[in-house]
Amino acid sequence: MGLEQLSPNDTKGKIITCRAAVAYGAGEALVIEKVKVHPPQKKEVRIKILFTSICHTDLSAWLGENEAQRAYPRILGHEACGIVESVGEGVKDVNEGDYVVPLFNGECGHCKLCKCPHTNMCQHFGVNPMKKDMVADGATRFTTVDGGKPIYHFLNTSTFTEYTVVDSACVVKLSGLIDQHSLKKLTLLSCGVSTGVGAAWNTANVQSDATVAVFGLGAVGLAVAEGARARGASKIIGIDINPDKFIKAREMGVTDFINPKDEDKPVYEIIREMTGGGVDFSFECVGNADVLRNAFSSVHEGWGLTVILGIHTTPQMLPIHPMELFDGRRVIASVFGGFKGRSHLPLFAKQCLQGMVKLDGFITHELPFKEINKAFDLLVSGKSLRCLLHL
Questions:
Q1: How does DSSP assign 63-84, residue by residue?
Q2: Taking the model in full, what pTM does it have?
Q3: Which whole number is the average pLDDT over 276-302?
């Protein structure tokens, strides 16, 4: 269908049969098959997905790294952009034909958390990897073509499908801000770029001349670097065991590099020597307790801040003794970069399109939707930051 406007009279209120990439088991190849997508219920939105991409969170879920989060069959995916096909009763913020980005971390706008300026959490629609159905009735909007058996949802979004249904709290309108050419780039705002840049801007509030260490140079880590670069950081140290990532990282603002495999002493010692006592900010983007320990140890006593972005799938606890925090160092986690999706993303999208954040460099591959398993392979092998899939 491309990027043309939908005619809501064609499908509104009807079950849509379309292609989806369905996960049937941990690590099993996704199956492209026909599924039924039911109409949106009260306060829900049905979206035609135009572009979607794969994040490490999708990879972790696909591999089933956390057994408690496994649910099959399931439609994964949470980075996308699309166009509203129809809306359910009571939806006022978006209309048929609007260009939108789905949000894995929703914003109802009414709960105690949404009204608090100090958090981007939401009591009702916040990120929840255990959630597998809709809030309205506890049912799914995806079913199998044969037998009508439920197919479970993922992270409030489920974007590996031509059509998806999300709660209205989990979608933000971008129409009026964009043209068709720029739409696909804004797919990245659903997760990776917003998470990384927001961690630098909102969570850490990196300022001009600050020193920064980024542990893990995947898409989120490079988004942190991009955010720090945009704020005028004087030194951005990138740490990764894959030296192939260093060329792209330099393009996105990283000034110095450390490959732990090439060093004889701990990374934090090297960083403290490079910076005269430690960096102002460190960002852990890997999801590994040993890496987190290095990140914490690399910040300066008195004011250093470590921001946790990596998804830690093991039961291991924080590798930090409470007394270490008495020297002024701090640790905080950041979800979706501190952005309140519906309130903040329209402005952030505008800033990105004005060139404040360079989105093009994050898209390293583009493939048709039917080659989604190849896109997973590219991510696993470390060859891609974001592979954009065209539906």
A1: HT-SGGG--SSB----EEEEEE
A2: 0.93
A3: 97
